[in-house]
Design goal:
2% helix, 58% strand, mainly beta, 333 residues, globular, 9-stranded antiparallel beta sheet, DUF2804 domain-containing protein, DUF2804
Amino acid sequence: MTLAAAPRSVLAADGSVNFGKYAGPLTQIDWRGLAAPHQRSRLWQHFHHKHWQYVALATDDIFCGIAIVDVGWTNTAFAYAFDRRAQRMLASFSRDGLPGLSATLNTHPADGAASSFRFLNNRIDYRHLAASETYQLTLQCGDFAIDASFDARTAAPFLSAIGPVQGGNVHATVKSAGLPLRGSVQIKGREFALDGGIASFDHSNGFLARETAWRWASAHNLELGFNLQAGYFGDNENALWLDGQLISLGAAHFEFDAKQPLLPWHIYTEDGLLDLQFQPEGCRSENKNLLIAASRYLQPIGTFSGWVKAGKDAPRRPIANLVGVTEDHFSRW
């Protein structure tokens, strides 16, 4: 299915929502002016507004996941580095911030994007550099440091999705295709080169339910990639990148053992365009219980093998050992 070009904003001039799945990035995700029937009180919106920036950096040697999250009444950030050859976690940072102070995320998901997290001597900075059409990520959290840049000039179209959410209100997201990566990661005096690797990002912003759950999978190289979600956002953000094309995918199914997440996963879409096995190499997990809030987060890192198709009658395109992540996540927020 060919996707229409993304609108500039999530809202039309009359405050109605530009629901749909689009090719190209939204210029802005700004919910001010949201009209009925989706309009809610300012207080309701404050406690249900969830906004995050996630970045993945992948090479043959290392995988890093970095996120800045504003949940309305508080904020948090995490970052980790996983050694793919030794199959062990090299560094892991997680910190809840001060409401309204530690985390900053602007309304631009791609061009003009800027997000940061500050707490004591820990800092994460992410931004789009318009002059060079690149994205820059810098991190300094103790003896864990990242200096990375990724180039969007030759990238396949980004995915934008705007839709209703289960038990919540409305939500929007922009996902990148695979982007050429440069830079380095330093951990306790040891350095890992990122040159020749692949970066991807996820910018999401909307009003979610008090209890929200999802399963997610994402992996990219420069020729193909995919984003899959099952849960609160339905199939709104399910897509395949193949040789520069952005292809809409249907509902995704995740078959795995939640008690043993390092066993293989089977992931497929109902439209018959994707069927993959995921072999975990390791996992980042975190459980929080803050009485009024809770989070159960599981993100295995590993490789995908199987096949994808550009259309119903197209030939199968094999996938082998494509590095990426899956996720099983529940939040009461």
